Amino acid sequence: xxxxxxxxxxxxxxxxxxxxxxxxxxxxxxxxxxxxxxxxxxxxxxxxxxxxxxxxxxxxxxxxxxxxxxxxxxxxxxxxxxxxxxxxxxxxxxxxxxxxxxxxxxxxxxxxxxxxxxxxxxxxxxxxxxxxxxxxxxxxxxxxxxxxxxxxxxxxxxxxxxxxxxxxxxxxxxxxxxxxxxxxxxxxxxxxxxxxxxxxxxxxxxxxxxxxxxxxxxxxxxxxxxxxxxxxxxxxxxxxxxxxxxxxxxxxxxxxxxxxxxxxxxxxxxxxxxxxxxxxxxxxxxxxxxxxxxxxxxxxxxxxxxxxxxxxxxxxxxxxxxxxxxxxxxxxxxxxxxxxxxxxxxxxxxxxxxxxxxxxxxxxxxxxxxxxxxxxxxxxxxxxxxxxxxxxxxxxxxxxxxxx
Length: 404
Prior knowledge:
The chain is mostly helical and 404 residues long. The protein has three domains: 3-45; 62-154, Type II secretion system (T2SS), domain F (Receptor-associated Protein, Up-down Bundle), CATH 1.20.81; 162-404, Receptor-associated Protein (Up-down Bundle), CATH 1.20.81. It is built from 16 helices and three strands. It has helices spanning 26-35, 62-77, 82-92, 96-110, 115-120, 128-140, 143-200, 206-219, 221-242, 244-254, 260-281, 286-295, 300-314, 320-325, 331-343, 346-403, and strands spanning 3-11, 16-23, 38-45. Strand 1 and strand 2 (16-23) form a beta hairpin. Helix 12 packs antiparallel against helix 13. It is elongated and about 105 Å long.
């Protein structure tokens, strides 16, 4: 097992340099430095750092990786050596956990590993897509270009994810607020009216009786039964989603939802075309690209379809025909891919499709928000309005009787 050594030495010009290197022994470090025309003056084993991984520590965010990738691309393009660029980026990283990973990558590269192999040891920070693109960039001598493409890809992916979250969070928040408000009214307010009406006697109007019956049900064991049922359904759904078949069924159903299904499909198309286009343009073979795209799809139905397409391409078919057979992606998408393949510009065409569907997602999110806002307001206002009217009907009736 390789040990990390801290070293310092002098170059032929007399300049003092230092750093860390992973090697089997001290002599191996000295030999490696000699090859780099550095005379070692000090080589010592690095003391082990005590790292406490707290569950509430700062996680590595996509934004951290994007900033790192963008800056690293600029440094490589400017002619800085890999190790020096990594050292600079590790020292200025605001996320300490990510800084530690960059330092480990620097040590691996310094010890003779390729940059891609060093990244592969940290899957929590760098995805398979990221590592494969870097490997293709290193092999083709265009690492700075590939890193720039990766930064652009990740920025657009983050933006797309943010749009979907904003579209889905609004109705969820409004619905939860409505449920909480109605529950408080039914459990705390309605019983007060109920006691007052029972002391007066007489026949209450039908809406009032319905609301009071619901209040008694929620205030008693009924509320606990509903809560237990919701929890049981939630746990059951999560357990079902953990199975391969369950994930495939639920992911297939989400794409067929009446309102959100169209939005999620557009997101899936944008992600598929953007990912595959970026991989192909970076020099990753199409079969490897399809394999990575399937794994990063985020939807088992899409993943299954892409894997079938990969099998057909492996047999010698084009990409467009088996993709059309899966009947998931719109006809326009498969036709544009077919044109791109015929013209020998598949990566460029996939990028254009992704840009088009990014705009489609923008429009879909705006339309969804505009449509749901009045519907949710009507639902919330109608529910609370019905309860209030039901509670005041007996009071109006008493007023009429007193007037007579």
